[in-house]
Amino acid sequence: MRIVVLVSGTGSNLQAVIDAVEAGSLPLEIAAVGADRPGTLGVERSAAAGLETFVVNFKDYATRGDWDAALLETVAAYKPDYVVSSGFMRIVAPSFIDAFEGRYVNTHPALLPSFPGAHGVRDAMTYGVKVTGCTVHFADAGVDTGPIIAQTPVAILPNDTEETLHERIKVAERELLIEVLNDLARA
Ligand code: GRF
């Protein structure tokens, strides 16, 4: 099974996938890792691991549509079975979803449909829920919407900050993502 992983930031979830593949516990090939901006640690980690990488820099394109088309063309060229968004902070175009419907896997640090969007951890704390968590789902053209594959609950502790909670959620998120990818690879 071949995957392309899309990141925008540190790529700690991606690193867990790389480690699992290298350890032989995740039977898939990471065909490439890409980002929407230059200089991400996620792409740097991947290059250091000898993986193919690409950047479709949002700022290089005159229009959103041009960027959408470039991203789709770049990802499709790797012929992935699945595309995995892990900390990728762009909402892809409907044309991307059409091309990868049911094959675009996203991770989110909240229990969707609660608290979608870029600040799911902060929004859960602000609301005052006692339990939040993480979700792995097939993304559709919405913001963190689409069929849910798996979820893990994570309790919010009295002295949590957004950072401490997000780091604890990410531990669960990495395990969940690897579990889901294992199931997909063995299906
Ligand atoms: C993850 O919690 C992901 O779900 C969210 O942003 C975080 C990315 O973390 N969208 P990292 O880049 O994998 O460290």
UniProtKB/TrEMBL annotation:
Ranges where the Formyl transferase N-terminal domain occurs: 1-181
UniProt-annotated binding residues for N(1)-(5-phospho-beta-D-ribosyl)glycinamide: G11, S12, N13
Keyword Chloroplast: no
Any Gene Ontology CC annotation: cytosol
EC nos: 2.1.2.2
GO biological process terms on file: 'de novo' IMP biosynthetic process
Top EC group: transferase
Pathway as given in its UniProt record: Purine metabolism; IMP biosynthesis via de novo pathway; N(2)-formyl-N(1)-(5-phospho-D-ribosyl)glycinamide from N(1)-(5-phospho-D-ribosyl)glycinamide (10-formyl THF route): step 1/1
UniProt: (6R)-10-formyltetrahydrofolate binding residues: R64, M89, R90, I91, V92, N106
Active-site residue list: H108 (proton donor)
CDD domains (UniProt xref): FMT_core_GART
Gene Ontology MF terms: phosphoribosylglycinamide formyltransferase activity
Residue(s) at site: Raises pKa of active site His: D144
Keyword Nucleus attributed: no
Keywords assigned: Purine biosynthesis, Transferase
Catalytic function, reaction form: N(1)-(5-phospho-beta-D-ribosyl)glycinamide + (6R)-10-formyltetrahydrofolate = N(2)-formyl-N(1)-(5-phospho-beta-D-ribosyl)glycinamide + (6S)-5,6,7,8-tetrahydrofolate + H(+)
Database matches in PANTHER family: PHOSPHORIBOSYLGLYCINAMIDE FORMYLTRANSFERASE (PTHR43369:SF2)
Protein task: Catalyzes the transfer of a formyl group from 10-formyltetrahydrofolate to 5-phospho-ribosyl-glycinamide (GAR), producing 5-phospho-ribosyl-N-formylglycinamide (FGAR) and tetrahydrofolate.
Family note: Belongs to the GART family.
Name of this protein: Phosphoribosylglycinamide formyltransferase
Recorded name of the encoding gene: purN
